[in-house]
Amino acid sequence: MTDIPPDRRPSHLDFSLVPGFTGSPLDRVDAWRQDPAAITKALNDPRACLLRMEGLDPLLDADGALDWGHLAEAAWDAELALLGLIDGVPRFVALTPAVPHAARRSPALNGMLDRLEPAQAATYAAARSLIDWHARHRFCANCGTPTALYRAGWGRRCPACRAEHFPRTDPVVIMLAEHAGCVLVGRQRSWPTGRYSALAGFVEVGESIEEAVARELAEEAGVAATSVRYLVSQPWPFPSQLMVACIAPVADAALQIDQHELEDAFWATREDVRAALAAEPGARFIAPPPYAVAHTLFARWLAEQDG
Fold it and tell me: Is the pLDDT of residue 15 over 50?
């Protein structure tokens, strides 16, 4: 199911099945990015807003929503990126030259993501990924020269060799192996006690999504996919990935776990998944948080089974 802007979503949709970090109301106004006059007009718009951030974490207002201030709050030498328009108002974020490790989430951020409305979390995700990309791409990958802001913050250009660089996202497959009415769940050693999720891995160069799903299942759990079905995708801003969620029936339930990748894995029944999503006491495992696409993957698989 393709994500639908919040103001166009029909009331009958079950939004527990819509991935987190999607549905931002941002109009990205791509045409403005190569129009200096449009960018100048946006910067001089008295209504223009700056997303208040502390490093890579958002600041929230008294209502627990993203906090927007005036552009004058930015440091005098700050580079500003135009995120887009919300309700016709230009929205900017300041680009921080040095930020903490973008793949890590602070305990405070985890709490904020549990409270943020999905559309606001999606706007934050775009801003966070953009800040991180700029912080890691200050120099030209072609000749090493410091690069300059380009396309209203949606690119950097080298003044020496004129190479253009644009924000990238890394594709990651995340999948539920399915066999005899059960799905395979696994956990990494670094996760909180009891947390299990779908298996996942980066798509390698020269590889399709279907090939990546089959390879990762074989490498991590020793199971052979007989087919692969795409379900949904999600931008994941830690630091900047596109999670491609799939379901893959496998030929056999026998597991051969790669201990370097997984601490444990087991086949979960519908009842196991239902109890985990409901956070029932005594559930066999703790489900991923609702803003993670793995949660959506479990919920959609369960809805299909119940249907």
Answer: no
